[in-house]
Amino acid sequence: MNKRNKQGNIPAKYATPKSAKTVLSEKVEMITGEKADSSILNSLDADQNEKLNQLVDQLSESKKLYEMEVQEITQARIQTEMLQATLEEEKLKLESLISEHKKSINETEELRLALFLKEKDTLKKNEELLAREAEAEAGFISQHSQSLALLTAELSKVRAEHMQSLAVSQSQFLQTFNEVDEQRKSLSEELSAEYQKIQNTKLELEKAKAELIERKAEISAQESIINTTVETRKIQLEQQFELQIAGFESEVIRLNSYRKRDEANLLDLKKRLMDFSELERALKQKGMDSAEELLLYVEKIESAIREYRQKLAGRPVEDLEDEVEHLRDLNRSFEEQLRDAKQALQEANAERHQRAIGIMERENLMMKNRVLQQHNDAISLATEQLKQEIDELKDRQQGQAVFPALTRMDTIYSESPSTQPVGALTEFVDELQLRIFQSDRNNPLYFDKETLQLFLGGLAMSQLHIFQGISGTGKTTLAKAFASAVGGHCTVVPVQAGWRDRDDLVGHYNAFEKRYYEKECLQALYRAHTPTYKDRLNIVLLDEMNLSRPEQYFAEFLSALELSGEDRQVVLMEDSPAKAPRYLREGRKIPVADNVWFIGTANHDETTFEFADKTQDRSFVLELGRNGMQQLPSTLKRSVIYSFSSLQTCFQNVISGHRADVDKIFNTLYTHEVTNVLAKRFGIGWGNRLERQARQFLPVVVASGGSMSQALDHLLSVRLFRNGKVTGRYDTKPEHLSELQEQLSDVWIKLFKTDIAIRCEERIEQELERKEIT
């Protein structure tokens, strides 16, 4: 959460700590992948919340153990695969050694064959030696002796070499054979050990797999228990609420009975007022000659009460409550005195019958009874007034919020969600088209890429959009589907025909109730400043915007949207309340954030008004026609929240990158004859606002996959060639329109070579046809 606050540039002192139920909801979402039902969590008491928290912690630990076991199994599987790879390498090495051993055996056989040939040659030489010996016996003894000596020496040498070579070969063969045999034995042992390890690892893996399946079953059982517990608790809470509702209804019936009783008491009091003459006689008996003296006495009592109230004003609520209890005790004592008086009256009446007491004494007792009753009523009234004043003091101490809905948002929307940055605008258009298409499974929504490219350009150009077109072309649907696709928020505000001022749009302040009645538009503007929606796209959809005149009820917003920074705000109240929402400026001004767009839908018929120039010149106008349906991929996209800051950065980079191209276009327009024709024949020039909007609109449309010609054609058609400007006027002539059409075609060729201004040309052609008919 702290990291999120740092990313959203939220000061630490404004970062609201998470509540226990918010942490519990996040734990449930982390385990199950789905958000928990906030109404069920809010209805749980402390014990149930603690038990559910413990159960969720157990599930979280179980999930962590499960993930650790899965990770260990995965690592064991990787090690097994590595061991298998090692065994394959060792097997290849063994096969290589075996092939080398066979090669050495072949070499040994070749050596044996060479030795055999040498022995054969030696035998042949022995035979030659024997032949020479035979010749020596025939008379060549001396010569034979010499030859024999040479042959004997040569034979000895050959035999020595042969024996030496044979010994070396045999030793090499034995050594190689021993080495190969030792290697074969060691490799066999290693293979057996590795095979045993693999078998053990396999058994462990199977055992771990069985444990995982068992653990998964336990987790599923625990989840089903949790679901059952939640459902049971939900049913219990519903039953409890039904009992509470029944109790409230019985309380209402009881209060109605009390009201009827009070009405009967009121009638009784009216009857008592008719006995004023008797009261006057009683006053005379008390020494009061007139009602004025009674009034003076009452004023004296009231002044004493006021002094008492002034004293009470500076006293704490606890002292007042003690005083009320004291007054209640006095009231009870007076009631007891009243009962005693009634009893005395009854005794006096009995005594009168018994002793024939005179009528005057009986009237005196009755008068005393009435006076005591009046004292009792006065004390009761004073007690109720004091109680009411104490309640008012408590309310003032607690402080009632003037903006209740906005104040609640400070708590509800205090957490920043994770967002995804916007990449290239061309890819963003493709993503939007697919997400809008899948926003309603029962009714797929298709908007072509050109419409979405112009819409994105409009987002960069102005925060006020007007969608025009016949009914059923998707004006309202596009705004709502776009907000859903980008993870933003869309607030629908149905415009009424009787709207006249800003209060009809944002609400009004009730001075008597000390409360501001916040309408949906005001809540949407404030919601855009909260951490939850600060980096998201927010849309205020003014449905049927021209049922009333926007220049009246939307006038302050038209002025605010022309400003920037701290000046872009709307004043709600003259004075700031004591307890104001966090994101109101000075406690009484609502700022219009950059991440808020007003989108108004408009139909043109006898029940609507035409937009004034001040509204159309400040807005982006998009005329929607009936779209053809194409089938897009059916694979559902995961919900995502696109970052407003990344989209704004993308817009700024694109605008600065195409600055030179836009400069070239306006330099050509300013110096071309089309400017003179617009000024001389139609009284229209290139304004600073139009140029500023074009520098924001044209680059974004091009970066979204559109063309500069398409973007400029749309902008000029809705700003200069709309009704009331070039077209729809009675003071223009056909030859002027033809001249403008010719110059427009010429400047378009200079700017874009082969392209033409399709929308502007169509408007001029329609106006020429209208002129011919009239």
Distance between the ends: 69 Å
User: Are there runs of 5+ residues with pLDDT below 50, and where?
Assistant: 1-17
Helix/sheet category:
mainly alpha
Mean pLDDT: 78
Measured as a percent range, the helix fraction is: 55-70%
Helix segment tally: 25
Q: What is the oligomer described by this structure?
A: single chain
Q: Trace the largest sheet across and list its strands.
A: 2-5-8-1-9
What does this structure look like?
By secondary structure, the protein is mostly helical. 69% of the residues lie in helices and 5% in strands. The chain is built from 25 helices and 9 strands. It has helices at 2-7, 20-32, 38-43, 46-137, 141-273, 276-285, 291-313, 317-355, 359-398, 404-412, 425-437, 449-461, 475-485, 503-506, 520-527, 550-553, 555-561, 613-618, 644-657, 659-671, 673-682, 688-703, 708-719, 734-752, 758-773; strands spanning 464-468, 489-494, 507-510, 515-518, 538-543, 569-571, 589-591, 596-602, 620-623. The protein has a 5-stranded parallel sheet with strand order 2-5-8-1-9, sandwiched between helices. A two-stranded antiparallel sheet has the order 3-4. A hairpin with a 4-residue loop joins strand 3 (507-510) and strand 4 (515-518). Helix 19 (644-657) packs across helix 22. The radius of gyration is 51 Å and the shape is flat.
